[in-house]
Amino acid sequence: MPEPDHTTSEGDRDIRILVDGHGGDSAPTMVLDALEMVLSPKFAAQFSASLAFGVVGQEEVLSPLLRERGIENRISLVAATDVIEMCDSPSHALRRKKDSSIHVGARLVRDGSWDALVSAGNTGALMAISKVVLKTLPGIDRPAIASMIPAVNDGCTLMLDAGANSECTSDHLIQFAIMGSCYMQATEGLSAPRVGLLNIGSEDIKGTDVIKLTSTKLAETDLNYIGNVEGTDLFGNDVDVVVCDGFVGNVALKTMEGTARFLASSMRKELTSSLVSKAGALLARSALNRFKDRVNPGKYNGAPLLGLNGIVVKSHGGADAEAFVSAIAVACKEVDANLTDRITQSVQEMVEA
Amino acid sequence: MPEPDHTTSEGDRDIRILVDGHGGDSAPTMVLDALEMVLSPKFAAQFSASLAFGVVGQEEVLSPLLRERGIENRISLVAATDVIEMCDSPSHALRRKKDSSIHVGARLVRDGSWDALVSAGNTGALMAISKVVLKTLPGIDRPAIASMIPAVNDGCTLMLDAGANSECTSDHLIQFAIMGSCYMQATEGLSAPRVGLLNIGSEDIKGTDVIKLTSTKLAETDLNYIGNVEGTDLFGNDVDVVVCDGFVGNVALKTMEGTARFLASSMRKELTSSLVSKAGALLARSALNRFKDRVNPGKYNGAPLLGLNGIVVKSHGGADAEAFVSAIAVACKEVDANLTDRITQSVQEMVEA
């Protein structure tokens, strides 16, 4: 296995990120484009530690691409022979594709050769393999996928679980709350992230039995628990971490995506319906583009798989290079902030309290 | 109790709609404004049966308002002394406000004096009182709230349950599927509405145990069951009825509302950020207004409470008169199509099959 190419500046630890060369609709080109971008001084300037990047996958495919771009000496190439397809079931990928890029990458993170794995591949396979190879952190029963949602005034809200666990007990939900709170402290610098429980009303009597029990228990923790929140609060500035089971979280995320797509297509239809409105749209174009940028899900691409004994970040499968760079940045931030140690410590403190 | 003021044209039955004078943020003015509108020939032209309207509530408040508008002879006034506030708990409203407009209205629908009750008041109270006073239809365990969602190409999708039942068994969900299918047949004229189950992926292995069991059972019914659908499908043209529990449905609805509001405020901010884009927005104004109309939730205001032995329609509390007219139209359609009889018959056929 090639050693990551990096130099350590005194006192700082390195941030060593391995990316999956075969995940995503436009892989491997999109992945290589993103790797070129993260080699820029502008990207590096976000972090005090020095950065090292690698790509894992089929050597015969990736090696020529690295050479073409002239980055073969700056990006380590880690060989893996198998490729997990989007249609592979998680169990098939887990059992039958042990030399896939995700498997090899997860093992190298487990062994400490790399600090994090970033993949735009099959979400179910990534979660299943990561769980088996990396295991969960002490005190965490189930890892969760966390999703960052843009909010008003350039804010953002972390929602978890976004789809890994359809059925959750109140203990699972409380663990999600702890992990989400640690994440927002570590990566957004919040001192006491406000944690809300996704419910169908603000009153205590609302929701399922699991939700009601979770609310009571959350109020007894040291977390900055603010009570029930609703779907409309996801985009506001009143909550930082929204906790829910993976079924509800996934429906909420996909509903957001569907609403945004529906509104955009309706707007396009209206704006192109007459010459006058077309002219207006032309004049307002830069504003409409800024609007698109602001609500672009790519800006917040990179969903951390939280609760694993190692850092894994899932990029949207349809991500372009720029969005994939966001996912790599998420991984860098998590490593930089020692997120896994922080979560372990928080869970430990919670158990002792 | 005053008799509804109506004339019956030969062969047709009347549609007699009673509206709650005290429900909604802008009641009673908004309610009276809406009643003026539904008296117009344009509204009546939608139905072959003749229409009769009444308003239920405090006589001393409503009587002068009817007279002011000169419609005291065309709108029956039904007296009720109590008013249910938005902050009243459903159980308090149910037990302590037996002479409220909702209670009196529900009793008159039960007794056959009126065909439907329309209210923009407290949803929990409306559901609780309707359930106790009207009872559920044979074969229906729990009534559901159904919500109509706008979709591309001027289509629409009915989602239920939108919030009445947080926890549902597969039998409840199947009953929702039957009711939703009947509703779309009756009010939208679809011969075999496509029924989908809201899930977090299209594959059969996805979702909770209840969802998987429901999917298996739905496939065995006579319904036009198309399998799992996702949050993104709510706005498409591939499904007519989306079935889910009330927790998930409510989160989805409020997430839609939040997303739309967030996008609108972001767009406004960008469009007013420079003179050029302001000018563009001005030129595109009529297009932007048509866009707002198209995605305006008011257009689809009027959520039927399905499964009750009587027709009850809930309007959004923030509805304006025009949106409240939509809710009244929903009630008229349900009466006109004999919806409760249809549901009863479908459930009966399903049990016999």
From TrEMBL, chains A, B:
<comment type="pathway">
    <text>Lipid metabolism; phospholipid metabolism.</text>
</comment>
<dbReference type="GO" id="GO:0006633">
    <property type="term" value="P:fatty acid biosynthetic process"/>
</dbReference>
<dbReference type="InterPro" id="IPR012281">
    <property type="entry name" value="Phospholipid_synth_PlsX-like"/>
</dbReference>
<dbReference type="Pfam" id="PF02504">
    <property type="entry name" value="FA_synthesis"/>
</dbReference>
<comment type="function">
    <text>Catalyzes the reversible formation of acyl-phosphate (acyl-PO(4)) from acyl-[acyl-carrier-protein] (acyl-ACP). This enzyme utilizes acyl-ACP as fatty acyl donor, but not acyl-CoA.</text>
</comment>
<keyword id="KW-0012">Acyltransferase</keyword>
<keyword id="KW-0963">Cytoplasm</keyword>
<keyword id="KW-0443">Lipid metabolism</keyword>
<keyword id="KW-0444">Lipid biosynthesis</keyword>
<keyword id="KW-1208">Phospholipid metabolism</keyword>
<dbReference type="GO" id="GO:0005737">
    <property type="term" value="C:cytoplasm"/>
</dbReference>
<dbReference type="GO" id="GO:0008654">
    <property type="term" value="P:phospholipid biosynthetic process"/>
</dbReference>
<keyword id="KW-0808">Transferase</keyword>
<dbReference type="InterPro" id="IPR003664">
    <property type="entry name" value="FA_synthesis"/>
</dbReference>
<keyword id="KW-0594">Phospholipid biosynthesis</keyword>
<comment type="similarity">
    <text>Belongs to the PlsX family.</text>
</comment>
<dbReference type="GO" id="GO:0043811">
    <property type="term" value="F:phosphate:acyl-[acyl carrier protein] acyltransferase activity"/>
</dbReference>
<protein>
    <recommendedName>
        <fullName>Phosphate acyltransferase</fullName>
        <ecNumber>2.3.1.274</ecNumber>
    </recommendedName>
</protein>
<comment type="subunit">
    <text>Homodimer. Probably interacts with PlsY.</text>
</comment>
